[in-house]
Amino acid sequence: MKKLTFLGLGLLFLFSCSKEDPLEITDPNSNSIEQQKLLSISEVNEYIASELKKKGDVNWTKAPAVVLWSAAVHGNNLLSVGYGNQDQSFSIEKRSSELISAKENIFSIVQEEEQLSKSKIVMHDDDILNYVDVTVTELETVVALQAADQIRYIQPAGYTFYLKEDRIQQKDFGCNQSGESINGADYRLISPNAWFPWNFDRHNISQAWNYSTGAGITVGLIDTGISGNQNLLGSNGFNDGASNGRSIERYGTYIDSPWWWSNNVDGPNDRCGHGTQMASTLASPRNNDFMPVGVAYNCNLVSYRGTSDVVLEDYHERKGVSNALKALGNRGDVKIISMSVGYPWSIGNVKDAVRYAYNRGKLIVAAGGTSTSFTNWYGVIFPASMSETVAVTGIKDNGYNRCSNCHDGNKIDFTIIMQRAGDNNRNVPVIGFNTGARNYVGGSSVATATTAGIAALIWARNPSMSRDQVLDKLRRSGEFYPNRNSKFGYGNIDALKAVQ
Fold first, then answer.
1. Is there a contact between 403 and 392 (Cβ–Cβ < 8 Å)?
2. Which structural domain range is residue 402 located in?
3. pTM for the complete prediction?
4. Is there a domain that residue 256 lies in?
């Protein structure tokens, strides 16, 4: 099923009501369990919309029990429960007795209220992150969990109904496997025979290449994977032209299955097109094939297909991204993680995984958001909203005017010029889904991949630097530095200044 992507295809704010007649309900804030009945999907969505409007996030843990329970029931009866203190997102070493006790207390509560064995209620017990997925059917279970100690969060893990089912695909964003014509003014030819995207000049990337091309640095990309049909992002073509001595690895953590208990990971191949476009922006070779080049054309790339598209809506997408973050966090060679994916509200297991990777020294670059309906009132999306990530958005080439669908706000750290002011369809040229094809790609997604590529140039130039030192280099290269703009952070990055 094609999804309308929040970052790439545009997010619609209203959900079409359930086709079934909603059940009779009472006041969701009532404390009487006996009086509560299941809320309809539209009523749950009304609560979500209200929370996003008021707070910019949804704190499910403190939601009325009937709302949380109803969302869980509509989402295959799944709850994610994070345990421990608020600063205990993960356990690198053996878990403490206190954490084990907190986890077992969750199981005991659910078993008692649901009258089921542990094997029937535990869907996932993470080995590193301090959270579990459990099956619940009873409102009393939710009430008991909300009252328990050592609970960091409780979230409906399988609720997917906030975004519309009748997705409307937009031409230039998100899932796109079709090639398109590129305006001749949107690139120039460089040696050996590669296309240099127009916006790279706005960030002095060609001048920065005199100092660094990303050699020796490994970047992790969590997205929709890389197309198996694109030779320049394959093991043979990745070292085409002036790119040499580097490697590309492709993995999959996303389970493309309707069954919640399935463990059949679908593999690394992109079925959307978005991940292929991000890989191109970040690391496409300086080729001899008249194709667009990437920012860090000599860096190594490790791609994870963690999601089917850029909206972290589905249970398996959230788990896939979380597992990809853990895997990249465990790799000593990976310095940077690029994530052009997200969601309107915080997702507990993804947040835990971001903190895990951050703790391992990774520079995590995330998209600030691209949508059609939230743009006028909603700020930076998750996980770019986290302090552990670097939030990036896209702007037009006529000053600090955000791109047609890009988000801005006080959590944005940097901006990348990526859209023609006179034509919203002319964004950044990239190699396409199939060998020989080209595409435009826009939004905060391409801005994020571009920033990750510039970070790779900095780190390759200064291999002994820490994550914080590289980030400081990025900040100092920002147009507004040492000041910070209320909507655009430190502004446009000067790649030349960053590597000098």
1. no
2. 184-499
3. 0.92
4. yes
